[in-house]
Every structure is written in C-alpha cells, then in structure tokens.
C-alpha cells in the first residue's frame, strides 16, 4: 500500500527546500438565483504550490492529421490535502498580476494535483 502522507510530506519538503513554493488564493465565480455570474467571487482556499511551464506540446487529430503546437503550457502542482480537495475546474487565482483559470485538475493517485492552467 502506498504511504500517501509520507509522499506528500516529501513533496512539500522538496518544494519548500528549493524556495519554489508559492501561495495562491483560489477563487470561484458565484451565481445568483438566476444562475448568472455575480461580480463578487467566493474565496475557496489558500494553497501553497509549485508553478512551472512547459514550452511545447503535441496535438493529434485523427480526422485531419497531427499538428505540433509550440507554446507554453502552464501548471500549478499542489499536494492534495484537505484544502486542495476544495479546488474545482473553472476556479481561478492571480499570480504576479496574471489571472489563471484551472482548466484541468490533473489528479495523480490522490497524492497531488498537477493543475493545467489557462490565462484569462
């Protein structure tokens, strides 16, 4: 059996040791009684995570061939603890003046979320 807590503690220690941990406040759009977005957003939680970007990726379409997209894919890696479990796709946060939406949670074995981000 996997010792999830031990793995999570090692990840946190590694990220903190190299000084790469960043604190972000996750927010969520609120809906009014008519299911329309409100101006104010709901603060979901505050997390420490590791932001990183990859510079290229492949996109394969069966109907018309494959393409290579060169661009940046941005991620936020968090340990999946109690606060991290509150995060949902579509939630957002701000980092260094840039707003990011969580496009995919990227949960890995209930240990971490390697969340794919989109700039908004």
Which properties best describe this structure?
120 residues, mainly beta, Thrombin, subunit H, seven-stranded antiparallel β-sheet, 1 helix, 12% helix, globular
What does this 3D model show about the protein?
This protein is mainly β and 120 residues long. It has a single domain (4-119), classed as Thrombin, subunit H (Beta Barrel), CATH 2.40.10. Helix content is 12%, strand content 59%. The protein contains 1 helix and 7 strands, in the order H-E-E-E-E-E-E-E. It has one helix spanning 4-17, and strands spanning 22-31, 37-61, 65-79, 92-95, 98-104, 107-108, 112-119. Strands 1, 2, 3, 4, 5, 6 and 7 form a 7-stranded antiparallel β-sheet that branches. The longest helix has 14 residues, at 4-17. The radius of gyration is 16 Å and the shape is globular. It starts with a helix and ends with a strand. The model has no long low-confidence stretch (mean pLDDT 87).
